[in-house]
Each structure stands twice: as structure tokens, then as C-alpha cells.
Specification:
The protein has a domain of 152 residues: Rossmann fold, CATH 3.40.50.300. The strands form 2 sheets. Strands 6-7-8-3-9-10 form a 6-stranded mixed beta sheet, sandwiched between helices. It contains 7 helices and 10 strands. By secondary structure, it is α/β, with parallel strands linked by helices. Helix 2 crosses helix 3, helix 2 runs parallel beside helix 4 and helix 3 packs antiparallel against helix 4. The chain binds adenosine-5'-diphosphate (ADP).
Length: 261
């Protein structure tokens, strides 16, 4: 059973004093400055902030793709140094292999991790269904729209059943209508699977709509300006956007970011 009280939840991710300095041709560049946070199991977290504030850098560090310069980071009690099988990553464009069918693209992570084949065959069918691609398994990526390709990306992300999903503007390249549909699908899948999601976006409304908490980052050097709890009812529907409590949260984040003039 899922307990809601903060004292009952388990922290799955802990970051302490995370700092990232890139060395560049013009000298050191502080991309993240002393960031500390905890993320509970099953939480939906968004990272928002202006372009260049270090959102992707933080996500890459969380995913074990990039090394931090200072600080500590653990997932499920283990220090993060390399990518982990219990963490899946998804980006703005899903790189699909054009010569593989949709079904074969979704099965790829399972093949790489050498997971049980018959389980994976069954799982792939369930995933095609879950992301609304029933009947598209034998098609090739070139036959699909941008939105459908991101549906494949979502299915592939879930293929090896990672507990934590790290998503870097996964629907950012899609038109607004498709993006809204994909956000609703993501929430539905998240509610059904109880994953922990960390979602990067520069769209404040999207962050409020999706999240349990929003991590608000400041422009470079990226610091955590604050964390806003989005204590709005679930399941969320687009009606929420007409709710004054939704606008209040959006304006609170705008205020934290200093974008109101
Ligand atoms: P965001 O995702 O918020 O747009 P990024 O994490 O991509 O921000 O970048 C944060 C800062 O770090 C930016 O100033 C960017 O130019 C810089 N940066 C990102 N990656 C590198 C890199 N590999 N080498 C040097 N600087 C980088």
C-alpha cells in the first residue's frame, strides 16, 4: 500500500552538495553549485529553470552519464558512478534504429541486458498496448509521426522495467496538442506503474501539471532556488489548468525564477 504522509515515504535518491564544474577553453564553468535534495520512491519531480541553468547536467549526473565534481549522490543506498539498470533515460528525440521494426526497437534494451526472451516478448506486446501503439509493432520508425516515435521511446524506456525514469524534455519537440496528450499518457502510465520520475522541462505550466514537487533552478551557476510542493488532486486532467490553484503554483514558480516584471 502506498502511504502518503511525508514521514512514511522512502527516499530513493539522495543528492548532497552536488557541484559540477566543466573545464572550457575560456576557463572553468560552474554548471551546478552545491545542490542538495532527496526524492521519494514513486514521486513525480520536475526540474525547471531557464535554458543553461544546468537541468540536463543534473539529469546526466543522476543517470550516471556525467561525473559530478563534488558532492554525493546515491540511488537505493548505492553511490552513483555509472549508468544503472534500474534507471532509464529518455531524451527529446528517441533515436530509433530505422532498420528495426517498432517491436524490435522496444525489445532492444532487454536484448542488451540479456533478459529472459519469452518474458520480453510478452512485455513488448503489453508495452505496445500501454503506449497506444497496438497494431504498429511491425511498422518501421520512418512510417511514424514524431509523437508516435516518442511513444516508442516511452515503451523502450519501460522495456527493462527500471524503477526510476529520467526524462529530459521528452515531448519538447512535439506540437502543443501532441505534447499535452503525451503528458496525460505519461501520468496514466506513472500512476499504473508507480515509477519514480524526474522530468526536465523549461515549461512551468507543464511542470505544475505533472508533478508532486517542482525543483526550481536559477540561472548559471545552477542552484536550487527552492522546491515547490504541488498539492493538487490526482488524477489530473486538463480541467486543472482552469483551477486558480494551478495558476497560483505557476505564478509562484515565476516569482521564484524572477520572471515577473
Ligand atoms: P540546461 O539543461 O538547463 O539548458 P545544461 O545542463 O545543458 O543546461 O548546461 C548548463 C551549463 O553548462 C551551460 O552553460 C552549458 O553551456 C554548460 N555545459 C553543458 N555541458 C557542457 C560540457 N560538456 N562542456 C562544457 N560546458 C558544458
Amino acid at each position: 500500500m502506498q502511504h502518503q504522509g511525508a514521514h512514511m515515504t522512502t527516499e530513493i535518491i539522495q543528492g548532497t552538495n552536488i557541484t559540477k564544474v566543466y573545464s572550457t577553453a575560456t576557463g572553468p564553468l560552474v554548471a551546478l553549485d552545491d545542490i542538495s535534495f532527496g526524492i521519494n520512491e514513486g514521486e513525480f519531480i520536475s526540474l525547471v529553470g531557464p535554458s543553461g541553468c544546468g537541468k540536463s547536467t543534473l539529469l546526466s549526473i543522476l543517470g550516471g552519464l556525467e561525473e559530478k565534481s563534488l558532492g554525493k549522490l546515491s540511488i537505493s543506498g548505492e553511490q552513483v558512478t555509472t549508468p544503472r539498470p534500474d534507471v532509464g533515460m529518455m531524451f527529446q528525440t528517441s533515436v530509433l534504429f530505422p532498420w528495426r521494426t517498432i517491436r524490435e526497437n522496444i525489445r532492444l534494451p532487454g536484448q542488451i541486458l540479456k533478459l529472459d526472451k519469452s518474458d520480453q516478448v510478452e512485455r513488448t506486446e503489453a508495452l505496445l498496448n500501454m503506449v497506444g501503439l497496438n497494431g504498429f509493432g511491425e511498422r518501421y520508425p520512418d512510417e511514424l509521426s514524431g509523437g508516435m516515435k516518442q511513444r516508442v521511446g516511452l515503451a523502450r524506456l519501460l522495456a527493462h522495467d527500471p524503477q526510476v525514469l529520467m526524462m529530459d524534455e521528452p515531448f519538447g519537440a512535439l506540437d502543443e496538442f501532441t505534447r499535452e496528450t503525451m503528458n496525460l499518457e505519461l501520468l496514466r502510465i506513472w500512476e499504473a506503474t508507480k515509477k519514480t520520475v524526474i522530468f526536465v522541462t523549461h515549461n512551468i505550466g507543464e511542470a505544475v501539471f505533472l508533478s508532486d514537487r517542482v525543483f526550481v533552478m536559477t540561472p548559471r551557476p545552477g542552484r536550487l532556488e527552492g522546491i515547490l510542493e504541488i498539492d493538487l488532486p490526482r488524477p489530473r486532467t486538463t480541467d486543472l489548468m482552469r483551477d486558480p490553484r494551478y495558476s497560483e503554483r505557476v505564478f509562484e514558480i515565476r516569482r521564484m525564477l524572477g520572471v515577473d516584471h
